[in-house]
Design brief:
Elements lengths: L1 H17 L4 E4 L15 E4 L2 H6 L1 E5 L4 E6 L2 E11 L2 E6 L3 E6 L12 E4 L6 E12 L4 E12 L12 E4 L5 E8 L2 E4 L17 E4 L5 E4 L2
Parallel strand pairs: 1-2, 2-4
Antiparallel strand pairs: 3-10, 4-5, 5-6, 6-7, 8-9, 9-10, 11-12, 12-13, 14-15
């Protein structure tokens, strides 16, 4: 009987975690944080103009920023925050360490790093860790669209890149090169941009040519 109860508790915990939903927020203005969401983690939708200007926000572990990079649906998420550092997930399965200038390993994992996202041999995105607080579990992060030629001799593992194609043509990269190996993550159509339902209106044409909408 005790064994059955233990299995049931574990099952409930697993189901509860897998059904977790992110609170989606629309960012506003040139930078800064959003409002409070109803769930533990939040997702910020960053606009093209904000990405061009550079967008800064405080994020906790589990929070993420979504944005478009050409036809690619991309994101930056904070995975963990520690003293003067943070680990972030970038675009697909790429996990990167960032250290502020106060960290002794800043030269190995600098606070600003650049990423290629469009397979054109140019860096497309700059990510900067401005500060990180272990006490508050907050990381101040800035993302900005760039267009910088990748230096010769830099290896980009394009053969690791794989995409999920949405019905509107948007591509979501779910395989990437990270920490010496090609890795993939689960992806589904729920990550695709949501399509607005199309309305179909019917009209009755009067003898005088005037059209009246017929209620569905």
């Amino acid at each position: 009987m005790k064994r059955s109860i233990s299995i049931f508790i574990v099952y409930v915990l697993i189901i509860g975690f897998s059904n977790h939903a992110f609170a989606v927020e629309q960012s506003a203005g040139g930078g800064g944080g959003g409002g409070q969401g109803s769930s533990q983690y939040k997702t910020i939708e960053v606009t093209d103009s904000q990405l061009e200007a550079g967008y800064t926000i405080d994020l906790s572990p589990g929070d993420r920023m979504n944005f478009q990079m050409e036809k690619n649906q991309a994101y930056v998420s904070v995975l963990s925050v520690f003293v003067n550092g943070a680990e972030m997930g970038v675009f697909a399965n790429d996990r990167k360490m960032f250290y502020t200038k106060e960290h002794p390993s800043f030269s190995v994992f600098p606070n600003e790093q650049k990423f290629e996202m469009t397979e054109d041999n140019y860096y497309d995105l700059s990510i900067t860790l401005n500060s990180a607080s272990y006490d508050s579990k907050k990381a101040s992060v800035t993302i900005k669209r760039i267009n910088e030629k990748i230096p010769e001799g830099t290896t980009i593992y394009y053969n690791c890149w794989k995409y999920y194609s949405c019905s509107d043509g948007t591509k979501i990269k779910y395989c990437d090169y990270s920490n010496g190996v090609c890795g993939c993550r689960a992806v589904s159509s729920s990550e695709c941009p949501q399509q607005k339902p199309q309305t179909c209106e019917k009209f009755y044409t009067c003898p005088n040519g005037k059209k009246l909408i017929i209620a569905p």
